[in-house]
Design goal:
309 residues; two-stranded antiparallel ribbon; 4 helices
Length: 309
Amino acid sequence: MVGRGKKGKERAGVCPGVKSGLIFVFTRQIKPMRRFSALVLALFTGASAFSQTEIGVFAGIANYQGDLVDKVFQTPRAAFGLTVGYQVSSRFNLRAGLTFARVAGADSMNKKDLRLRNLSFQSPITELSLIGEFNTFDLDQKKWSPYVFAGLAVYHYNPYTFDAGGNKIFLRDLSTEGQGINGYNIKPYALTQLAIPFGAGVKFNLSDNVRLRVEAGLRKLFTDYLDDVSGNYADPSDLLAARGQQSVDFSYRGDDVPGGSPAYPAKGSQRGSPKYKDYYYFTGVHLTFLLPEGNGGGGKRGTGCPSVF
C-alpha cells in the first residue's frame, strides 16, 4: 500500500486485516443506473487500497441549453449533490457524485418569433457520475490549483409542463412530434440516458483536510428531447387518434398567447431544430473533506491504511 506523508512523500506499509471498500447505492428501479452504480463500486473498491478518501457536498445552479432558450443562463434552477472520492495522487482524483437538479425553458422568455410558439417545459435531473480530475499544480505543495475534469454519467429526466389550471402534464407519453406513432419514423425517447460530463474549476486548500472547489461543468447529451422539442409538427389528427386531445393541445400552444396563430401548423413544419443536441450544465461549489488519519488511507497525514466502510 502507498500513503503520503506531511510533505507529500510516499511511504510503503502493510495494513493487516483491513478490508477496503465502498458501498455506493443508488436505489432506483432503473437497470442502466444499477449497472453504472456497480461500475462505480468496482472502480472505487479497487482504488481504495492505495488512496485517501474524501467526501463532499455540492451546491450550485443548473441550466439547460436547447430549443426553448435563446441565451445562456436564461432559466437557472437549484442543484445540489453528494460526492465520494479518492485522492489517487496530489494531482489526480477520482470522484463519484449523486446530483439532484431541475432544468427549465420557456418560449415566453425568448424573442418574439419564438414567444408565439408558446412552448415550455421543466424537468427534474437525477445524475450519477464518475469523474476524473487533473490538477495543474501539486496540491501537497500549493494552496490552490486550476483543474480540469471529464468522465461518464447516467441521468434520469422526465419533461413536463402545466396546463391553464396549473396541473402538471408529463410530455413524453403525449408523443408531441409523433414519437412511437404509426407513420412516423421517430422512436419514443428514453428517460434514462448516458451523458459525458466535462469542465474546469479551481481548488483551494482551506486546511490540511478541507478543500473548496469552484467549478463549471457541461453535460454532453445524446438526445435532443430533454425539452420534448426537436423536429417537426405532426398531423393533429394523427395525434388525436393515437394519444388523444391532450397530445394535440400540448404539441402546439400558439393559440393560447396574444398574437399567436389559432391554426395548428401544417404537418412537417418546423417545431424545433434537431441540428444540435440539448445539454445541461452546472456551476457551483464543492466543499470536500479528506478523512483524517486513522479514518482514511494515504493523504498528507495518513498512514496509508484505508478505513473500513
